[in-house]
Amino acid sequence: MDMPVNVPVDDPNADTEWNDILRKHGIIPEKPPSPTPIIEEALQEAVKRAHENRLEGKDLDELDELEDEEDEAFLEKYRKRRVAELSTITRASIYNQVYPLQKPDYARDVTEASHKAYVLVHLTSSLGTNIESRLLTELWRELARKFGDLKFCEMRADLCIEGYPERNTPTVLVYRNGDIQKQLATLRELGGTSTSLDDLQRFLVDVGAVKENDYRVSRTKESESNPKNLRSGQSTAAEDDDDWD
Asked: Is 0.85 surpassed by the pTM of this model?
């Protein structure tokens, strides 16, 4: 009976002539394929995709500025796509403002309305000293003007839900198809008192209310979306004393 022979192998994965002989006779297994070609192929595909999608998110004016840099047929394809998107959004933009809510009409104005579009409700603080709530009220107005196909609503939390904890305000409720899809208690997850318009736009994308490649989703300077006067609790613009009394 043949006895097994122990063949000395320093490193079975090394590229040596001795290892090649051992592999040929089945003494050591074949080397696993190198992951390098797979990684390189994935990187090349990612670069190719990024190049093909380089005009995603650009509006018509930005596309016009690229006439000397991009192929005209390629630009025209994106122009037509933007025009179609604009037409669709224009037809759907029927809201364009923040709607104050009353408790008796909540089911109609929110739950039922969410079968037609996303409805976002801001349950506000009853205290004028709540900086996050005041900040969100301002940003809510900007979002409503920018995303007219979404319905933005506002109601004082304690008038909506009796005994609602002040510490949970502002609260954001996202409705679609009659159900709450997402809720936030305070702006802690978005940036607290530093929450910007850009943070809220990303939130809209995350909950599915806005497509990621929507041309309206763009970065906004913090100074424009996060006024210092709101963060410090001082206002330079005239405000309503209380929208809900």
From this structure: no
